[in-house]
Every structure is written in C-alpha cells, then in structure tokens.
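Please describe what follows:
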Amino acid sequence: MNLKNELIQYPVLRLYDPTALTELHTDASAKGLGAILLQKQKDNNLAPIAYYSQATNKAESNYHSFEFEMLAIVKAIERFHTYLYGLNFSIVTDCNALVYAINKANLNPRIARWTLMLQNYNFKVEHRPGKKMAHVDALSRQIFYLEILPLERELEFRQLQDPRLK
C-alpha cells in the first residue's frame, strides 16, 4: 500500500499539460493490460500523468500476443481519450510488429477494426525493448482481483437476513 501511495502523489504523479510532449506506454499479457500516460516535464524527464490496468476477460485471454498488445493500445487510448484526442503523441510498446502493422493493408478483422478506431488519433508507434518497459509491464501482469465488492457483500448479508431477497 505504501508503494501505491507514493506512485499516486507528487512528485511522481504530475498534472496533465496539453502543451507538453506526451507518450503512452503500453504492455499486455494473458492476465491483463497496462498503460502509463507520461509527459515531459520542465526538467526534460518523463513523468506519469495517469495509470491504467485491466484484467483480460476469458475471451481476451485466448488472443495471440500480437492481439494482446494491440488491445492494450486500444483500451488505453479509450481510457485516456480526453487527454489524447486532438494531440500529437507517441505510443511506446515492446511489440515491434505493431510498429509495422498499423500501416499494413492485410490485417485480420479484429486488428483492422481496431486500426480504424485509432485513425481518429494523431500518433506514431515506437518500439522499445521489453527490458526497458518494466514500469508498464508491472501493470499488465500484477492484476488485483476483488473477491467480493462491498455492495455485493451487503446484498449477500441482506439475503442471509431475508431469504425472500434471493
């Protein structure tokens, strides 16, 4: 919990600046998707603006690794739409094939559909080796599952009190 608190407070997490150089770092695994929205600060260092992490569902967990990586980009752009729409930005991924696939003519239908959605944004895709992407790799692999949400716990408790609620 201490690490999480450090990651979501200044000086690590910074405020969004629509004029700053912006990068979206993404990664994916069979377990989940992760992304970090970063911006260049006055000291020329990149700092996180926002984090995104999501577990894959049963169908997504069967995707090919290339599709995982593309899904991570699509979901991250959807999540950070308000920050990225109308902005020039870079997407950084450890999947070298994605750098070329965005402009490829013959794509499988799923990738083609996602590529069409991405045409609303102005970005370039850059490859960075996986060992230099540990920051976002952690978000795609360490997924925290909630066994029972608080509202579900309350409903479960009420059902125990009054069986007619089932």
Notes: The beta strands are 22-28, 32-40, 46-55, 88-93, 122-127. Residues 145-149 have pLDDT under 50 and may be disordered.
